[in-house]
Design goal:
196 residues, mainly beta
Amino acid sequence: TLSGEQAHSGKTSVKLDYTFVVLQGVRQYVGVGTPLTFLGTPTEFSVWVYGDGVGNVLRLRLRDKSGEIFQYNIGTVDWKGWRQMTASLAKPAVSWGGNADGKVDLPLELESVLLDSEKRPSKGILYFDDLSYTAELAPTELVSIDLDAKPFGAIYWGSDAAEAPALVARNLSAAERVEANLDLKASMTDILDVET
């Protein structure tokens, strides 16, 4: 649940209140997630965790385009207070489902950050904040191009407003400059309904 009890930045974080009991042969874990599709090829995932010192293990689950789940080990929560935990996404600990080929089919989506029951019985509260990731991206993945109706010179487009679709480019990363050429081609018969 969203909570104002702890926050690494801002005013809220996600609170995970858990209880694991002693059951032989039964896996126990609980996860939190948010809709997130990764751009490019993610190489690293980080989350700020307010630890409870119990010693349970955090794992990350990502789902690829085919539905295959990739699980990564983030680390043991054996401290109290805020700490940034980071997982390398170079090689998952295990994968299953989807096309089951063990190869990531981009794009990846966040399935969950989960707490696995290494200590049973155990009970505690964790807080999660400031999810982030590092990814390799092609320059074309940093630019979004949309159609937007704006005045377009003095060309008549079938209305008195003289508006036509205009291309709007947005740089999704202010850190680097992206340059590209855009070629638009149309014939007059595509644009105008010409009667002869």
